[in-house]
Amino acid sequence: MKHSLAFLSVLFALLAQSLGAQPPPNILLILPDQMRATAMGCAGNSEIRTPFIDQLAREGMLFRRTYANVPVCCPARATLLTGTYAHTNGMIANDLRLRESQVTIAELLQAAGYRTGFVGKWHLDGGIRDPGFIPPGERRQGFEFWAAYECHHRHFAPTYFKDTPEVIQINKFEPEASCDFAIEFLKTQPAQKPFFLTVQMGPPHDPYGAPEEYMRLYDPEKITPPDNWQPDSEPTRNPALLRQRWLPERGAVPSGGKEEIAAYYAAITALDDQVGRLLKALKESGQEDNTIVLFTSDHGDMLGSHGMRRKRKPHDESARVPGIIRWPGKVPAGKIVDTLFSHVDMAPTLLALAGQPLPKAMQGSDLSKVARGLTTQGPEAVLLQIFVPFQGDEIPEGWRGIITANHTYARFETKPWVLFDHINDPSEMNNLAGLKEHESIETKLDAQLAKLMTSNGDSWSHNSKELVEGGGLFRYPQSFYTIPEYLSFLKSQPPHPQGKN
Hints:
- The chain has 501 residues and is α/β, with parallel strands linked by helices.
- The chain is 29% helix and 14% strand.
- It has helices at 2-18, 51-59, 73-82, 86-89, 105-111, 174-187, 212-215, 239-246, 258-284, 316-319, 343-353, 368-371, 439-455, 483-491, and strands spanning 26-30, 61-63, 66-67, 115-121, 145-149, 159-160, 168-169, 195-200, 291-296, 323-326, 335-337, 341-342, 382-386, 399-403, 407-411, 416-421.
- The two termini are 37 Å apart.
């Protein structure tokens, strides 16, 4: 499968060259971890400072309704890279390994003559997260240049690997360290060869915080939380112990209050400066005008909205992420659209913008015409999926959801969960699920969700009731491709001591 796709990509590229086509565009994908869509000045947030992200939006297109199909790390990243849903590519839970047989956008572009590069948090190899060396080869899924780690949240002292298992310790804030490697990639880029580079930064993922000069920018007492925010959303958590474990060089940021919102904003402003460095380096390379830039995130962060924490929710703060595409002269500058756009659409859209053929296996929509300003028509709905329970996020079981122009609806297999009216209740303060006066719209959305699941090969049978997230998969040296594979292995093992989350 991979070899036939590679042959077609090369053939397509040679044909384009023979016809005197324009050189293929470069692609730069910037993806911070756990960044909600509203945490940008260009999204209407007047309290956060994101001048360089805002610049991208002014010079490109802001997809205001961009979503994570599976709002949790590993499934989100796999969906984005493959253009397929998690039940199709197999990444239904954190810390599984993405099958080497899966075809990623990096492999397709590499076959078409692109130099490919990955910098930052990978989190697709499974097994023990630390130290996190992924050797060159198929497990890198088509990426040639490599400066990455599997998964850690040591934001102030990150470690990376290149092509050997020697740990590279960087005593900088992680976005700055990742940006250094990305600039190295740009400076070593061969002339007349297109590139695909993705920079996947760790912050603003918790533990919340940033270098002191950024922390001083935000006074917690002057922060205005969202209307749906509730204080003390996690009273059982011990922030001091959390901080001692992960960030010994900093004092604790109290959990469940405005302090962590301020720290979250500080981390975003810090990474925004690195976005600025990256854009400057791109301009200095002479490749700015011929580079498609996509800025997004793997999922958002509830951060106390509705009294909830972190991700895995159908709510806006968890499922909606930044979506900005810039390509000077090709994508209209300063345009804002409400076209539904999600992770599964990103690979086919980028490939189409780059003039590459789209594999039939990709399940997402090609929204390149939207990006070019030719239309605003897109998918009628976004499919949301969570396949396993997770106690840390208060998710009792897997669920499915649908987002339309006007509503968010999500349900468990046996009962509805939430129904929100975007038009009359943008803060999602009123859950309409189960209310008789809204029965007709709930019935309609329920049927639409069922149809969307069926048309994409999803079913409730893909769910697992096992507490594999936050409880086990990455505690063993080997990786697992599926939950049944892990459970079968577990039966043959003595009890494993409880590790850290």
